[in-house]
C-alpha cells in the first residue's frame, strides 16, 4: 500500500469511529427510542465513502500541528454535511438514484420521509459537533468553523450550486464553460475548499498558509468534479458504486460535453498541477496533499 493509501484508509476508519460515537444511538440498554428509525437512517447515510473531505481537513489541520482528535471531529462534521447532501440529492425530487456507495440509497433502504429527515438531522448534527468545546477550547475558533461550514454549504455554496444545476437541467440552453465552472465551484467545490479552510483554522495557520491550502482546494475541487464527469461518462457502475451515464441522459451541463473526453482529461491534469503549485510555501509538509491531488486524477470510484 502506498503511504497515501495507508493514510486515507486510517483516516477513513477513524472518521467512521468518530461518527459512530457522535451520532445519537437508537438503542440504549436494549431499548429502542421512539425516534430510532431516524437515528438508524442517519447512521446508514454516513457509512462508507472515501471520506476525502474529512481527509483534507484532518491532513491540513495536522500539517499545522493540530491534535488529531480535534481534527477528526471537524472531519466528522464535514462528512455529516456531505452525507446529508448525497441523501437529498438521491431523492426522487432530485436525481432519483437507487444506488449510492454500492448499496441502496437511504430513501430506498428506509423511505422518502425518513431520508429527508435524516438529511435534515445530519445537517444539524454537523453544527452541534463544531459548537462543542471538545472540538476546540477557543469559542472564537468554534464560531469561525461554524460560520465557514454554514457559508460553504448554504445558498452561496453547495445548496446554491444544486439549485443552479436543477434550473439548468430544465432549460434547453446549455450552460457555458464559465457558468458550469461557477456552478460546480459552488455545488461540489465549496465543501472541498472549506475542508481545507477548516483544517487551517483549527491549526491557527498564517494568512499565507491558509490561502495556499484554499487555492489548492479550489483547483483540486474543480479537478475532482471533472473526474466525476469523466467517471459518469466512461466509468463502470460496479466500480463507481452508483449509477453512471446519467448526467448526459438528464441533459446536465458536464465538463465532458463542454470540453470533450480528451479536453476534460487535459483540463483535469492541468488543474492538478496548478493545485499542487499553490502548496509551494508549505514545502515537504504538504506532500500528502500533493499525492491526494495525483490520486484524484486517476480514481475509479
Ligand atoms: C441536495 C443540498 C443538496 C446538495 C447536493 C454535492 C451535491 C449537492 C450533490 C452530489 C451530486 C454528485 C454526485 C456530485 C458529483 C461530485 C460528488 C459530490 C461526488 C460524491 O463525492 P465522493 O466521490 O463520495 O467524495 P463518497 O461516497 O466517496 O463520499
What CATH calls the topology is: Farnesyl Diphosphate Synthase
Ions, cofactors and other ligands present here are: geranylgeranyl diphosphate
Describe the global form: globular
Number of helices, where a helix is a run of at least 4 consecutive DSSP H or I residues: 14
Instruction: Write down the secondary-structure element order.
Output: HEEHHHEEHHHHHHHHHH
| CATH architecture annotation name | Orthogonal Bundle
Strand content: under 5%
Derived structural class: mainly alpha
The domain tally reads 1
Average residue-wise pLDDT: 94
Q: What profile does the largest beta sheet have?
A: 2 strands, antiparallel
Low-confidence stretches: none
The Cα radius of gyration reads 19 Å
Distance between the termini: 18 Å
Please sum up the structure shown.
This protein is mostly helical and 301 residues long. It is 71% helix and 3% strand.
Structural description of this entry:
With 301 residues, the chain is mainly α. The protein has a single domain (3-298), classed as Farnesyl Diphosphate Synthase. The protein has 14 helices and 4 strands. The chain has helices at 3-22, 36-46, 52-63, 68-89, 106-109, 112-131, 139-153, 158-170, 177-202, 207-234, 237-240, 246-249, 255-277, 287-298, and strands spanning 27-28, 31-32, 99-100, 103-104. Strand 3 (99-100) and strand 4 (103-104) form a beta hairpin. Helix 2 crosses helix 6 (112-131) and helix 13 (255-277) packs antiparallel against helix 14. The chain is globular and about 55 Å long. The model has no long low-confidence stretch (mean pLDDT 94). Bound molecules: geranylgeranyl diphosphate (GRG). Geranylgeranyl diphosphate binds at residues 49-50, 52, 82, 85-86, 88-89, 94, 101, 158-159, 162, 187-188, 225, 228.
